[in-house]
Every structure is written in structure tokens, then in C-alpha cells.
Amino acid sequence: MQPHLLLLTTPSSYRLPAFLDAARRIDVQVTVAEDTPSELIRPLPTRLLIDFRDREAALKAIRDLHAVKPLTAIVPVDDSGVELAAIVCAELGLAFNRPAAAAAARDKHLMRQLFARAGVPSPAFRLCSTTDDLMALSQTVRFPCVVKPLRLNGSRGVIRADNPRQFVAAVRRLNALLDRIEGIGKHEFLVEDFIPGFEVALEGLINNGEVQVLALFDKPDPLDGPFFEETIYVTPSRLPEATQAAIRAVTASAAQAIGLERGPLHAELRINERGPWMIELANRSIGGLCSRTLRFGTDATLEELILRQAAGLPIDTLSREGRAGGVMMIPIPQAGILRAVDGVDEARAIPGIEAVEITAPLNYPLVPLPEGDSYLGFIFARGSDPATVETALRAAHACLRFTIVPAIELQPVAG
Q1: Positive or negative CA dihedral for 149, 264, 269, 87?
Q2: I need a labelling partner for 262 at 20 to 30 A (CA). Which of 5, 150, 202, 305 fits?
Q3: Closest Cα partner for 348 from 386, 383, 271, 400?
Q4: Averages of pLDDT over each 10 residues, the chain, 415 residues
Q5: Within 10 A of 122 (CB to CB), how many other CB atoms are there?
Q6: How far is CA 289 from each of CA 225, 271, 285, rounded to the nearest angstrom?
Q7: Residue 135 contacts residue 168 (beta carbons within 8 Å)
């Protein structure tokens, strides 16, 4: 019988098209469940609309689907669906991570507590609230520090502070962001030690609690704040094998500390003279369109591996193709309205560049980090070695010219 997978996603997901394409390639049936506010839910012939926050209603909708078209597995495409997937799978008897592990993979405070308990190298932290006396709190903080929301991803809301004045400003800025996202009120957040060093990202697949490393990405641009917008990822890593082995070991310990047993894993680590430090760990695949840099065996995608594991289908190989690959997430240089993008053809003509995709729509507002949650687009490259790939990405980015004008509030015309 053809496997039937439920994909949990969001309306703005970058990842969903790649998962749908992978499902067609491996011939599995999928139903898409899209996170939708309760007041906007309506019957659709092609998608299941559910409110991820309304757990009882979401459970009922998925149970009803399962009764009519039995599910083989539930796959969260984005972070937002990880906990719901675990809860539903536990109820339906489908293989997935335990709900407690899924919750820890989503909540940075729970994650940090489990890391500390297991001895996983990670930043010192404390839980704070936006209703605390910020001036008094700033006198007790060790600088430099990082102010971080508990549940946002993609570096959204993450701000470095080097002194009490910057700390108070950072918390107020984070509070304003959380007020817009979660509603006005009290918000908890983390204050963490800033870990100096350079960053890497590890992409893996967890099978029966064992982390199988799929790729290790170098991040050649420094990420020292005050915001932490990622740009270039290049694989394979140029780090010494001993350092790579230490990164793999810390990642495996972190996944075990949380209790993850299956599914994709995306980890962010910092490396300095004391070794690797676990900064973030998520039970999902790499963000944006970045998975396009990875090909396995005879051209299998990362999403194919994830769906094959979920469906219980064989995975031929986890070995990647021999060439180096990389992606540049094009940063938003300033807030405003995107009016024009020039130089795309020149960028695509750079040797080694495979694609340049501008994903930000024209005539729509751009919001940079720490408030924003998107990029202008993505540049993809392949080459004989990582240095060649990095050079091509930087050359292509230098060709691009973005016309961004200030956003002007339209005032009603009198009379």
C-alpha cells in the first residue's frame, strides 16, 4: 500500500515545495496541513487547514483524516509543527519523537536546562522576563551577552549587548517584537553568555537515537552581532578532521540530552579554543532554500531522505556527490519597499553559480533582522572545492543591486 504522509507546514514556508517534489519522486501520497488561525479555517479540497495552537481541534481534524485515509507518518516541515506532530503521533501510535523531546527542541530554555544537566557545552544562561526591572537586571548581567526569545528561529529577536545601556535597549526591542507576534503582555526570554568564535551548521538525520551526519557547513562570515544574520554556507567543511569529529560528538550528545530519536536535525555550533559549543538544535531540516546545496547518491534530495525515513522506505546512501556546494542567503540591508533588483543576469553568469533566486516580491516591505524573518533571496554555487564556491558566491552577490525606498505611511486625504 502506498505510504500516506501528513506534512505540517505554514502558509509562508520556503520548504514545502521541496517536500512536495520529493514526495512525487519517491511516489508517496501526502496531505498538507497548513497552520491557520481558527477564524480563517474553511474546507479546502487540496489542504487541511488547522490551528496548531488549538491542540484539541487540530487533534480531532487529524484523527478524522486518519480514520478515512490512514497515515503512515507525520512530518513537520517547519519548527511550528514539531510539537503537534509528536503529540498526534503518540496518540495514533505512529513513530516519532516523544512529546517531551519535541517540546525541548522548540523551547530554548528547556533545551538549555537539558544541555546543562547532561554536560553538553553550551552558553551559561538565565531565564528573565520583560516585566523585570531592566535597569536592575542589567547590573547583574555578565557582558557581552545575548538576549534571545524562547521560541523564535532564524536569529529573529536575537541581539547582542555589550553594556547595561545596550542590554536595556535590546530587551525593549525584543519585547516590542514579541508584543506584535504573541500579543501584548509579559514575555520570558533568555540572557546567555556570548560565545566568541566562528560558527558552523550541521545537518543530520536521527535514526533510533543515532545522529547520522549528512553535511557540515562552514559559515565564513563572522557572526558577532549585534544581530546574527546568516549569509554564506559552504560544504564540505574546511576544518581539521579532529575538529569535525568534536563537532559531531557534541551534536550527538545534544540530541541525546533532548531525547530526539528520529527525523531531521539542524544544529548551530560555535567553535573556539575550548572546542565546539552547542548554540541551537532543531528537529527540522536546514532553513530557507538552503537544502538545494545537498545531493545524495544519484541525485536524491535532503527532503527525499527525510520522507523515506518517515515512510519506512529504504535509503540507498547518505553519501553526497563529490563536488563542493554552497548557498548565500542574501541579507536585507535596510528596511523599506523593494522597488527593483538589477544585476541578476550578471550574477548568474559568474562561473560556478547554479542559480540566483530573488524570493522577496517587488513593491512589498522589507524587514531586516532582528525583527524580520526572511531574506531577499538565495544564490547557489558548486565547484571543485569550498574556496572556489565561496569566491563565486561573493562575486555573484557583488553583481546584485537592490533599490529599496523608505516605507511611507499613507495618510487619509481630508474632505
Answers
A1: positive
A2: 150
A3: 400
A4: 94 90 96 92 87 94 96 95 96 95 97 98 98 97 98 94 98 97 96 98 96 97 95 97 98 98 97 97 92 89 96 91 92 96 98 97 95 95 97 98 82 43
A5: 26
A6: 24, 25, 10
A7: yes
